[in-house]
Structure formats: C-alpha cells, structure tokens
Amino acid sequence: MQLSFKVGDKAVYPAHGVGEVMGIEKREILGQKQDVYVLKILDNGMKIMIPTDKVDSVGLRGVISRKKVKDVYKVLKEK
Q1: pTM of the full predicted structure?
Q2: Mean pLDDT, to the nearest integer, of 24-53?
Q3: Are 36 and 20 in contact (CB under 8 A)?
Q4: Sign of the C-alpha dihedral, residues 64, 66, 67, 70?
Q5: Which residues are bridge partners to 13 per DSSP?
C-alpha cells in the first residue's frame, strides 16, 4: 500500500524519526528519472530523499493522532 504525501505533511521515517515533506522532486537514480520525497528530519534538520515508489519498503508512514497514541499506551500497559 503506497501512501501519497504532500508538501508540508509530517511523516515518520523509522530510522530517523518524524520529518516534514519539504518537496517532491524528479531525480536521476541509476540512470532513471524518479520522483522523490525530500524529507527534513525535525530533530536534527537532516534531509533525506526517498523515491516515491519505495515508501513501503523503507517504512515511511504518516504520524498517528493523539487519540491513537493514548490507545497504544493503553495496550502497552495491559498485562
């Protein structure tokens, strides 16, 4: 299931945390033009480029809501 992000969306990149989509650009990768998300990691300002067709394989996902966070903590506290 490939997600579609827009400029300004927040997304979680598992290896580095939450970032903001700063742009969607065309880049040449291994001789082929590809669309990439330009993600700026909020914690340290690092920029990451993720090919849009690799979103699933790298685990990029949207940020969950506050309610969902409460639900997760509730499940984690159960025995």
Answers
A1: 0.80
A2: 94
A3: no
A4: positive
A5: 17
CB 47 within 8 A of CB 27: no
Phi then psi for 77, rounded to 5 degrees?
-80, -15
**Stretch 49-57: mean pLDDT:** 92
Q: Which residue has the tokens 């909020």?
A: 42
Rounded to whole angstroms, the Cα distance separating 5 from 48 reads 14
The rounded distance, in Å, linking the Cα atoms of 24 and 11 is 14
Beta bridge partners of 50: 37
Is pLDDT of 45 > 50?
yes
Q: What is the pLDDT of residue 4?
A: 87
pLDDT band at 3 (very low <50, low <70, confident <90, very high): low
- Residues 55-73: b if buried by 16+ CB within 10 A, e if exposed: beeeebeeeeeeeeeeeee
